[in-house]
Design goal:
Layout (H helix, E strand, L loop, with lengths): L1 H25 L5 H4 L12 H14 L5 E4 L9 H4 L6 E3 L7 H13 L6 E6 L16 H18 L2 H21 L3 H11 L39 H13 L3 E6 L4 H9 L3 H17 L2 E3 L17 H13 L3
Parallel strand pairs: 1-2, 1-3, 3-4, 4-5
Helix pairs in contact: 6-7, 9-11
């Protein structure tokens, strides 16, 4: 009898603790954590899903941006200070660790709330670096899975059941990773402080959504890049979405992210079959939907500390020239 009572007590305790942790994880942070400098410290401690929610909340409450930057850690450091476009409202929607699929999802959600920037710039990972093409961490779980179901249906029709199975497995894995965050003690402590509006150091993020690259640690720029393991089967489908924006008057620019000049020739000469496949389809899709698609720029200059994260100053200067050209 005592054993049963003990088991019941443990079960109830675990259930209550889990409910509390889930409640903390599910509690949304307001855009104030981005607007107020002394609350931005939390942004560096948030998982990708919550960072995306904060940026979208900010966009929903603010005036429509003239230029929206989308991508991951390879563009998130570009802001007003590096683009230097006077009179232009810029917002960086970049979410570190995410693929181009997350960029497309954010753009779809911005369209649904009528907050699409008039110019959209998307950093797509260099084709050999290509991330797995996961389904992203935003929007909410129900909306995410409705999009997963729609994508799975499209894949089953265009490619077959194998691609559909990979899509679903990747989505389940992504959800498991996000759920695990709720049980991380460091995350829970930080989230509680943020929910109670505790202030701290300013943090690396800025009001325009960009992130200060800070002191960058020198790494070898000659590291080997593993050959691409995924062919982004949703590419054509996603680019149809981007093409629809162009037809509605939105300027859409997609560029492959640059590599360190010291390795460009070696990587391009030895491009894998999957990478070539993605690049060919990328340009074919761009031509079909008539959006601006650009090859990875060669950004020679100081500041490179690793193989695939361009210095903000070099990338910002290049993007400035692109944006000043007529679409």
């Amino acid at each position: 009898m005592r054993f049963v009572q003990y088991v019941c007590a443990i079960t109830v305790t675990l259930a209550v603790a889990t409910s509390i942790l889930v409640a903390i994880y599910s509690s949304p942070l307001s855009s104030a954590v981005l607007r107020e400098p002394d609350r931005r410290w939390i942004l560096d401690k948030l998982p990708a899903a919550e960072l995306a929610f904060v940026k979208m909340a900010y966009a929903n409450e603010d005036q429509r941006a003239d230029v929206g930057l989308f991508g991951n850690s390879r563009i998130v450091m570009v802001g007003n200070d590096t683009l230097r476009l006077p009179g232009i409202r810029l917002f960086n929607f970049g979410v570190p660790g995410q693929s181009i699929r997350q960029s497309v999802r954010l753009i779809q959600e911005l369209r649904s709330i009528d907050k699409l920037p008039s110019t959209i710039v998307i950093s797509m990972d260099h084709v050999e670096l290509g991330m797995p093409g996961g389904d992203g961490v935003y929007p909410s779980v129900l909306r995410r899975w409705s999009l997963v179901a729609r994508d799975a249906w499209e894949l089953s029709r265009s490619i077959g059941w194998r691609a559909t199975a990979v899509q679903i497995v990747n989505a389940v894995s992504s959800e498991q990773q996000m759920a695990a965050v709720a049980f991380n003690p460091s995350y829970v402590a930080s989230k509680l402080k943020a929910l109670t509006a505790i202030k701290g150091a300013n943090g690396a993020y800025r009001a325009d959504g960009s992130r200060d690259e800070g002191e960058r640690t020198q790494q070898s720029a000659n590291l080997v890049i593993p050959q691409r393991a995924y062919t982004y089967p949703q590419l054509e489908y996603d680019f149809e979405t981007l093409g629809a924006l162009r037809r509605n008057g939105i300027r859409v620019i997609v560029f492959e992210s640059p590599l360190a000049p010291s390795i460009v020739a070696r990587i391009e000469q030895g491009l894998s079959a999957r990478a070539r496949n993605v690049r060919d389809r990328f340009h074919t899709a761009c031509n079909r939907v008539q959006i601006e698609c650009l090859a990875p720029p060669l950004l020679a200059g100081p500041g490179w500390v690793d193989r695939d994260h361009a210095p903000a100053a070099l990338l910002g200067a290049w993007l400035q020239k692109i944006l000043q050209m007529r679409g």
